[in-house]
Amino acid sequence: MTTAISIGECMVELRPVADGHLKRGFAGDAYNTAIYLKRSAPDIDVQFLTATGDDGLSDAMIATWREEGIGDRLVFRIPGARPALYLIETNKKGDRTFHYWRGETPAKQWLRQLLAAGGAELLNPADLIYVSGISLAILNYADRQAAIELLGSLTTKVAFDPNIRPALWKSMDEARHTFEAMVKLAAIVLPSRQDYQLLYGIDDPQKQVDFTATLTNAEIALTCDEAGCIMRYDGKTVAMPTQAVAVVDTSGAGDSFNGAYLAARLKGAAPPDAARAGLALAAKVVALPGAIIPRD
Question: Is 143 a known active-site residue?
Answer without folding.
Answer: no
